[in-house]
Each structure stands twice: as structure tokens, then as C-alpha cells.
């Protein structure tokens, strides 16, 4: 489903270059849930941005199915993100002036689809994440956990192949974080997603199929069972 070969990312820092990571190579099979762990600054978010074509690597290649992401134009990359990937951030980034159902519908509205066509699908996804009764509420009227559920519904309404989540429970308390992770796990299975989840929560990472650890610019695969609970 996803193949990464010799990936390198360099940032300019003053008069010198900062190599965030280099020679990263790994593959993710269709249907897998891969956790990406590592200390802050290890490059987890940057890696997800490259895999979703939000950013470009300094060297190396990324393939999603048979699509070579490095060769995409800006417009093609935007279309790839809208159709093939769903992204959930640590902060929900809901548009405060719109209701929950309008936020969920936004990716399809941006395709030019009519509201009458999109609204039933957005309502269905809100029901999928347990918020069917909160559809007409604006983001400020929702709890943190509810806002993240709306963001998850928004990410999945396009029926993407890839779900990319960057610390999706990082801003939530323990109980709410557990509920959101359990929801992600359920939707991953029910909708046959391929999911990559960057997380500091090693207990959650242990429940993924595989774990990739970024450390000192190097990626190494470790067994989920070897992580502390």
C-alpha cells in the first residue's frame, strides 16, 4: 500500500543544515495499523506530512499503491490528499463558524458536490462516530473528545485508502483519549483502512500491528510487545 525508499529530510538552520532523518526505508501493507513513535523533534509529524504529500522530502521516494508521490504537481498532490488520504491532527482544526455536519461535509463540498448530495453522507459519518445528535452544534459547543470525533468523521468521509493521524489523542484526558483511540481502531477495521498513527502513547502503540521508532535520524522497527504499557 505504501512504500518509502531512502527518505531524507533536511532543514536549513542558520548557516548550517539540520538533517532530521535520512535513509528511511519501510513498507506498509494494505490493512495494517502502524504506530510511529519517538521523542519530540524526532520527525514523526514531518514524516506524516511527506507521506500525505503536504511536504516534500529532500531525497528518496514515496509510493502509494502505484503512485509516485514525488512526481506530483501541486494540484495533483492536493487531489491525492482529498481523495486518497484522511488526516487527523492533534488539534481538530474545525471551522468554528460552521456546524459539525458542515465541517464533516467540507472535503466533499470542496470537490464541488452539492449540499443536498453531501449532507446525508456527512450525517451518516457523524452517526458512525457517535455524534448523530450533535450535527447542528458548532465546534465551540462540543467537548474536546467530540471535536476530535468530528475531525475523524471529516477525514473519512472521502473514503480514503490511508488514514494518517498525528498525535490524535495528545490534547485529550486519559479516559477521552482511550475512547478516541478505540474508535480509530474500530473504524480502521470496519472500513479496511491502512493507518499510520504518530503517538507518544506507548500503550496505544502496543495495540497496533507494527511499530516504527524514529531516533537520531534513523527508523527502526520494534515489536509492539516490547513497548512498556
Structural features, described:
Helices cover 34% and strands 28% of the residues. It has 229 residues and is of the alpha/beta class. It has one domain: P-loop containing nucleotide triphosphate hydrolases (Rossmann fold, 3-Layer(aba) Sandwich). The model has no long low-confidence stretch (mean pLDDT 92).
Radius of gyration, in angstroms, nearest whole number? 18 Å
Mean pLDDT across all amino acids: 92
Q: Low-confidence runs (pLDDT<50, min 5 residues)?
A: none
The figure for the number of domains is: 1
* Number of β-strand runs: 10
| Count of helix runs | 7
Instruction: Tell the overall outline.
Output: globular
Examine the coordinates and then state which fold CATH places here, giving the name of the CATH topology: Rossmann fold
> What would CATH call the architecture?
3-Layer(aba) Sandwich
By helix and strand content, what is the structural category? alpha/beta
Proportion of residues in β-strands: 25-35%
CATH superfamily: P-loop containing nucleotide triphosphate hydrolases
Biggest pleated-sheet summary? 6 strands, mixed
Question: What gap, in angstroms, lies between the N and C termini?
Answer: 29 Å
- What is the CATH class name? Alpha Beta
* Spatial arrangement of strands, main beta sheet: 6-7-8-3-9-10
The percent of residues in helical segments reads: 25-40%
The SSE order reads EEEHEEHEHHHEHEHEE
SSE layout and pairing:
Elements: E1 2-13, E2 16-28, E3 33-37, H1 44-51, E4 59-64, E5 67-68, H2 74-84, E6 85-88, H3 100-109, H4 115-128, H5 144-156, E7 162-166, H6 174-190, E8 194-198, H7 202-205, E9 210-215, E10 218-222
Parallel strand pairs: 3-8, 3-9, 6-7, 7-8
Antiparallel strand pairs: 1-2, 1-4, 4-5, 9-10
